[in-house]
Design brief:
By secondary structure, the chain is an alpha/beta fold. 18% of the residues lie in helices and 32% in strands. The chain contains two helices and eight strands. Strands 1-4-3-2 form a four-stranded mixed sheet, with helices on one face. β2 and β3 form a beta hairpin. The chain is globular.
């Protein structure tokens, strides 16, 4: 059974939707009367559902990291910086590169070239 959706509880659903649209190419879809904004992934990836956070829920309290596969992490981070999204330093690990940032809800995000390793693992 495939994993098709992740839920992010957001204080500001609209701001979070714009963030994922601008920086990661998602398309926001909202049905009339629905409390959820669904971010549809490009190229068959996992969709993200944005749900209004409860008043007592703290931002970034989940232990989860969203990882986006990119072939050239350094180029992606440079382009993202031009669009206003700063990543931390590049890290090298076992034949791939990754960098980290946070979304407006303080959830951890990584871009990684792991899927493009030469050994295919």
């Amino acid at each position: 059974m495939p994993l098709n959706r992740l839920v992010i509880y957001a204080r500001n659903v609209e701001e979070t939707a714009r963030f994922y649209e601008k920086h990661f190419g998602f398309t926001a879809i909202s049905l009339p009367g629905d409390r959820i904004v669904e971010l549809v992934a490009q190229e068959g990836g996992v969709n993200i559902m944005l749900h209004q956070a409860a008043k007592g829920q703290r931002s970034g309290q989940s232990i989860i990291k969203l990882v986006f596969d990119v072939a050239d992490v350094e180029a992606f981070c440079t382009q993202s910086a031009e669009n206003g999204l700063q990543f931390g330093p590049l890290h090298e690990a076992d034949g791939y590169v990754f960098a980290n940032t946070k979304d407006p809800c303080q959830n951890s995000i990584s871009v990684s070239s792991r899927a493009f390793r030469k050994d295919g693992v």
